[in-house]
Design goal:
mainly alpha; 56% helix; single chain; flat
Amino acid sequence: MNMLSVYLPGVILNFRTYKALADKTISQLEDAEINIAQDEHSNSMALLVKHMHGNMISRWTDLLTTDGEKPDRHRDSEFEGELKDKAALIKLWEAGWDCMFHTLESLKEEDLRKTIYIRGEAHTVMEAINRQMMHYAYHVGQMVYLGKLIRGGTWHSLSIPKGKSEEFNKKMAGK
C-alpha cells in the first residue's frame, strides 16, 4: 500500500471531522451570541470564523502556484468588528471550507511532494496540509470551548456527556 494514497483521504476525513464539531457548536448559538467574547483580549465566534475564513482563502487559493499568504489578505482586520447575524457567519464559514476542500480534493499524489511557500517559508504540500490541520484544530477547539461557555447549562455535548461514560460503555457492550 502506498502511504501517500492513504494520506490525502485521511486528511480530508480529519478536516471534515473538525468542521463538523464547529458546525455543531455554531448550530447551538443564537444570532445575539456570535459576537460574545470573554473579554476585550478574547475572540468571539464571529472573529474566529472571520480569521479562519481569511486563512483558508489565502492558503488554499492557488496553493501550488502562489505564496499562501496572499498580498490582499488583511489578517489584523479578521480580529476586528462584528458580524450582523449567524447567516453572515455561516456564509463566511462555508466559503472558507469550500475553498479548502475544493483544493484538497483536486490534489494528486505527486502534488504532496511539491514545494510551496507560506510567508516565504518553504514547505512540502504535505507539511503545509499538516500545518493547516493543526491550526484549524486549535481554533475549532477554541470555538467549542467558547460555545460551551456561552450556552452554559443549555449546551448539548458533542461527545459523551460528562458523567455518562459508564452508560455509554454498557450500551456499546450490548451491541
